[in-house]
C-alpha cells in the first residue's frame, strides 16, 4: 500500500546509479545517485555530511564517463541515515534535455513523460 507522500508524488522516481558531486558552500563531496525524477534526486549520504535542511547546493551528475552531466541547483529537503533527498530548484536547458531523455527511456510511456514534464513547468 503506497504511503501518503508517495500518493501525493507527481513525479515518477527512476532508480539510477551514477557518480555525482555535491557542491555546498566551500565543500565538495563525491557520492552516488540512488534515484532521480524531473523534480528531485536521492543520493547516498557522503561521509562527513553536516549541511542543514533547506541548504542550497549544486549537484553534478556525471553521464557517459564524464563527457556529459546533469547539473542542478538543489535544496536539501530530507536527511535519512544513509541518504539525502534534494529538490531541484533550477536546471539549465542542456541538463533538462539529458534528464528528460533519461526519464523517457526508463518510463517507457510518452504520455506519462509529457504529463510529468508539464507538472515540472508549472
Task: Explain this structure.
It is a single chain. With 122 residues, the protein is of the alpha+beta class. It has one domain: predicted glycosyltransferase like domains (Thrombin, subunit H). Helix content is 26%, strand content 45%. It has helices at residues 4-8, 93-107, 110-121; strands at 14-24, 27-36, 40-44, 56-63, 68-79, 83-91. It has a 6-stranded antiparallel barrel. A hairpin with a 3-residue loop joins β5 and β6 (83-91). α2 (93-107) packs antiparallel against α3.
Write the layout of secondary structure elements.
Layout: H1 4-8, E1 14-24, E2 27-36, E3 40-44, E4 56-63, E5 68-79, E6 83-91, H2 93-107, H3 110-121
Antiparallel strand pairs: 1-2, 1-4, 2-3, 3-6, 4-5, 5-6
Low-confidence stretches: 1-9
Report the average pLDDT across residues. Answer: 81
Instruction: Please estimate the helix content.
Output: 25-40%
The N- to C-terminal Cα distance equals 28 Å
Quick one: overall form? globular
Query: How many strand units?
Result: 6
Named CATH architecture: Beta Barrel
Q: How much strand content do the residues show?
A: over 45%
Looking at the structure, the CATH topology is Thrombin, subunit H
